[in-house]
Amino acid sequence: MNDPESATLFKWKRLIEWLQTYDQIGVALSGGVDSALVCAAAVQALGTSNVTAYTIESVMEIPQEVEDARQIAESLGVELFRIPLDELQVEEIRSNPSQRCYFCKRERLKIIQEKAHLSAITQLVDGSNADDLSDYRPGRRALQELGVLSPLAEVGITKSEVRQLAKWQGLPVWEKPSTPCLASRFPYGIEINHQRLRQIACAEEILKKMGFSELRVRYHDIVARIEVPINGFDQVMAQREKIVDSIKDCGFLYVTLDLQGFRSGSMNEGLK
Length: 272
Prior knowledge:
Layout: H1 6-19, E1 25-28, H2 33-46, E2 51-58, H3 63-76, E3 79-85, H4 91-94, H5 100-118, E4 124-125, H6 140-146, H7 151-154, H8 159-168, H9 194-209, E5 216-220, E6 223-227, H10 233-238, H11 240-248, E7 254-257
Parallel strand pairs: 1-2, 1-4, 2-3, 6-7
Antiparallel strand pairs: 5-6
Helix pairs in contact: 1-2, 2-3, 2-8, 5-6
């Protein structure tokens, strides 16, 4: 396996040194590559006995995310606390305003912090990387308010560098596509409920089983809008009838393909 380039390795060294300034670290482990890399670095810096991981079992997440977090923690020898949470009990999240991500992140981090403090862990970190600083991320305000730090962003590690380092470290999720919570599939202002979440989860699981790895299904009432990379359009059309019939069975009346193709955060395009 080829080592990352020297500039990236330098950032890795800085990351380890940054983490070593703490005696103990709690990691908000989502199951994705960013927080997995932070957890691996924390283990190298502090040892397994001084690193604890926390993941949220939420109606807004697909179960595979929690399973991935469990496997990551197990492979690193880190204790993992799985914390159940139904964010839809919170009106500011259920009503889905443009700042929903802030309210959601705040609820998640507050409950993780409460759990961490029971183990006398005072510093919690997450997997936000340097690229996240330039994106529309209202959840970052919750990090700042609660004192949760982002080591990858602190030392300037970008998403592409995260993947290089994760591959180098042998993390099995190194090429896993980003998987934001299911709430990101809804236009702002459209109420999120359990039934609608199940519809989206159902539709996306169908497409994954049909071989699509990078995708989103966006909720528009009776319409499911599919986003896949443009080079996957032929694959969609080749299975068009099966896709339409299967996604209709999830509770949609119409099934559409977005001709702009897959793009992360497309629901933010209407924000001014």
